[in-house]
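Intended use. Records like the one below are meant for learning the mapping from a protein sequence to its folded structure. Do not use them to infer anything beyond what is encoded.
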Amino acid sequence: MAYLFKLEGRALEAYNVMVAKLKEKAMRELKLPESEIVIRPLRPEDLGLSTPEWTFNVGSATAWNTEIDNTTIADNRFVGINGVLIEESGEMGCTQIKITRMGQDVRYWQIQGVNYLEDSCIFFDDPVTIDQNTTLTVKFYCRTADTDFQCCFLGAVAEKRGVLVA
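Structure written out for the chain above:
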């Protein structure tokens, strides 16, 4: 997938480690050779969203809003999240993202002001991975309610060749 922004430095190293971890886990748990594993870009449906777009309805101000609620990552799919692209103009109401895996908080990412960066994108040097059949919850902390918050998660998925991509 071609992005307009650059992934470089520590964030690129972290992405490469994340992808290697996803591929190794997929090969080991699915008992497949490397040639049978595909790495592809993350899609909204991989995180349990019902449509192929990264839109969230953040209804409460000055509170944590659960936007992906205890969804289970599909069987034979290994997911990694390493950044976000924010499609908001002006003052952004959401300031943080909290990632919970199997009931444990595993990441807090500060995103306030990302929409003012040149590409409205930030890559994390501490990406998170979520294994197959593992529960995931994503919450946004917001200062204001936003019924159409455009936060595109960036990442990769490792899965058996042919499930989505040949």
